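User: Teach me something about this protein's shape.
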Amino acid sequence: MDNNTEYKTSKIKIISANANSVRTTNKKKKLLELVSLAQAEIVLLQETNLQDDETIELRGFHTAAQQNRPLNKKKSGGGVLILVRNDIKVNKVDLKFPRSENVQCCSVQVGDVFVSNMYRAPKDRKFDDEDIEIFTQLRKIRKRHVLGGDLNLHIQWKNWTHQAKNSNRILELMNSEGFIQHIDEATKLRRVGIKGKKKSKIITNGGEDGNIIDVFISRDDGTVLNSRICPELELGRGKELSDHRIIMCDIRTYIQKPKKKTICVEDLKNARFQDFRSGLCAEDLTPKQNENISISNERIVDAIKRQWSSAVDTKTITFRNNKPVYELDGKTLKLKAQVQKLVRRYKKSGCPEEIKSQVRRAQKNLASAISRIVYKNNTKYLEKQCYSSKSIANYLKKFQEKNSEFGPLRQDNDPKGKEINSDVDSAEVMVEHFNRIYSARDDFTNDFTTEQNPPKMHDIIFTSGMVIQAIEKLGTTNASSEDKLKSIMLKKCKNEVAEPLAVLFQKVYDGAIYPDSWLKAIIVPIHKGGVVYDSRRYRPVSILPTMLKLYETIIHQECSDWVTNEEVWPIRKNFSAGWSKYQFAYLEKSSVEGNLLSHNLRIAEAAKYGLQLTTIYCDARAAFDVLSFRNIGRALVNLGMPKKLISGVLFGLSNRSIKVRVGQSVSRPVFPSSGIAQGSSFSGFLFNAAINSVFETAPEVICQKSGLPYVRIFGYADDLKVSYLTHNKEGFEIMKAHQKQLQTWANKNSYQIHPDKLVAIQNGESVINEQIKVGDAVVKVVQNHKDLGVIYSSKPLNFDTAWKTKIASVRSKAIDLRQKIVSRSITVLKRLWDCYLNSILIFAISCIGYPTEEQIKQILKIQKMFFMNAQICDQRCHKRIVGEKLCRSHTVPDPIDVTIVKRDLINFFKVLKDDIKIVEPYYSENTRDNLSNIELSRNTRNAVMTSSSYFKPTISERISEKDMNLFRYRTCGDLQRIPQAKRANVKTFCTFMKDPECHINERNLEPVIGGRKKNVLVGNFKIMADRGYGWETRKRHRKEMVPSVCGPVRR
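Assistant: First, the predicted structure itself:
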């Protein structure tokens, strides 16, 4: 039991409100203000009007239970929802109340009390069988229970009677068994017109008992306390959540309610690192000659941890778990008390209009104060804490339940199966699932024979310099495996431990045996999308021992240097040293954009000659986990790896154990029979080695009409796309033959092609119309397919769908962020834009080309909406230059049309500087022209060429739509306008893109301060021209720069 957790009788505050829809932004804002003012732990909402799987997210609360109304074509509305503060532990339960279009109900258990939230649709004061069933079920619940909600039952609650005769029996039983309805004032409001005026006013539906339709019902057992209507929560005229009064009560429950959470952290700020290093120097860390390798490793690890604990003290941090999300200040509490005082005075004095107007003014002032608290709280936190996409994501988690990242799982992955709530059981389910993925263990020896004759790599000699460089590459994460050794410990003593670790690693390498602690890994399930209850929707990511990561960092660097060394490898077609040119993952200068650009060049050439191009997309099932140890060893031999290294790697893979961690619980250990660990820096190298031979299966048959090879394979990790020319019978036969060869390779190399994910896109027409197969699996021909995040279509290089998808995603995300994050600070908004929205827009921009003018206008509108009424940063901002009105670091970003041009130009320059690897569509080696050899017949921004080869002589054909997507020809005009001195390297080039002297920044209006209080930034996202700026002016400026379509020419 947690020492800081109190188990005692506690009061839990509940409010119940008929929301009359929470789908609009305005209603969500009013709900947030209501919850902030009420300071309640549980919120019951009726008539949420949410549909299907919709829910609402409120910072500091999570949706504990929900039932949306089953809708048909004629009806809408209804629905109930229970929000619970994150520090209150509840369980969702089913109390068997009737559920239909007219009645929705959901329930939770809070300690030893059950709380239900019910909405019953109005039925013209009728009392039917469904109503009888509600009260019958209520009588059957013998445990402590509270039913709250909007029942729309016009019952005389004092004596439990109703005008319908069929209600007498059940209501008499309820009364005799001691049930109480705790609200004693009318709860229905109605708006009536004022005679002779256009205005209206809100009044209650009279004081009679029959108009109490929002209720709290329980047995007379002392569970419900302090029930009442709350006029102070009716936030001024126009601020009402709905036309119902808001009701509140306390419930008395025996609950686990931790008031304080205490954690111990290391006090690194006051750590004595010099003492730490001195203590290590006094230790004898060097492994002995005949000492067991595990003992040597443990001696070094124990010494580092021992000296660390003596030099780094711990400090205790205490958190108040039940602290309200938005704490009310003294001024707001006084306003709240004033409203309550005026309401009491209003009732006692016979409800005069004069006092009623005072109540309304006080409520309005209270609403304004609450809005200010919410705004200041969010802005202060975001400006201080949210400096990256990761920190913003952590902030957004405050809207969700704390454990929403994992599960809960369900038995047999069935949506109707039993829910698994225990972390221990969940960990066992996950470890069993991961263990089933592995393929059967194969028998192998370390005597592998090479299928080729690669150059032989020398044995690695470990030095202290290697160890220091590897330590510097380690991340700064605090994650640690079972050995509890953190990377920061090694970083603070790298010079002192470098020599002992070099000796240790040399012993490990020479003996090809790993220490016992290196073989134990912790698996953390990472959700990869889809439903959370399905164990198959989680990816295993390993937390490896720090010493193993350090060792693998060194051998990874040595192996990579060897395989990429062109001086020792013979020249082979389609290979760069030991690696295939067509693999674009885990290699230097390789990227998603390089993969897509290379594929685009092939599409463009095929379309130029009118040839059909069939691209088959292959996806492997659990690619990293099913690789056999024999295939890994054979792949390393084919790369010339030394025997000691291969033996050690295979020993580590075949003898490792894994445990799955869920929460604080860890599963039993299992021993993988295949695969490599996801989470190791060496895993990408091993996987590339295992599939490096797939690119050799492509035949070198050349199409005589175009000069293109009939088959080309592009890879990005386990995602393969195979591109075939299928315009004639020869091409189709080559494709069928290669598919058989590809399936044979997959069977031999443990690459399990997922038959359900085999799809193909066909660009162009062909005289052949036959079914496409890979092995026995039929390939489904589709019109659109997402390849590495970019939507390709059957129309060559037509990315209109891709842009529409991007714009829809950005619009939805922008609205969602502005709804969740209540802030007008330019600092906050710019961080949100850069981290979430701009990254969506510029992803793979060089591959999909420019959007249309209409699409640019749509994005500019989204930009303008997102930064509307943005306020300047504080005068004390540390990045503000003294004397300047505007902070240059915290201002509105460039308009999207300018951003696209800049990003496109930067990527073009990276390709020219070989910073992004792309592959030409032809086998012939095209020597890339130097930048100094390029000139333009005209300074053009969108000058393109109809050929995909580099820098051919000037042509006069009109620009075709597909050529606009070859980014390097769009940007040649802009490139020539950049001064030669600014083209020295990529870093200098990127810096100049932000310089006001850069021609791209012309016609780009500087933001100015406007607004009523002179603190609102007026940005440059204008649709129409304004004083020579804006979208229309920039468009005219571009047209003036394009007097012809001539492309670059060779000197």
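Now, about its shape. The first helix runs from residue 25 to 38. The mean pLDDT is 80. If you'd like, I can walk through any region in more detail.
User: That's plenty for now, thanks!
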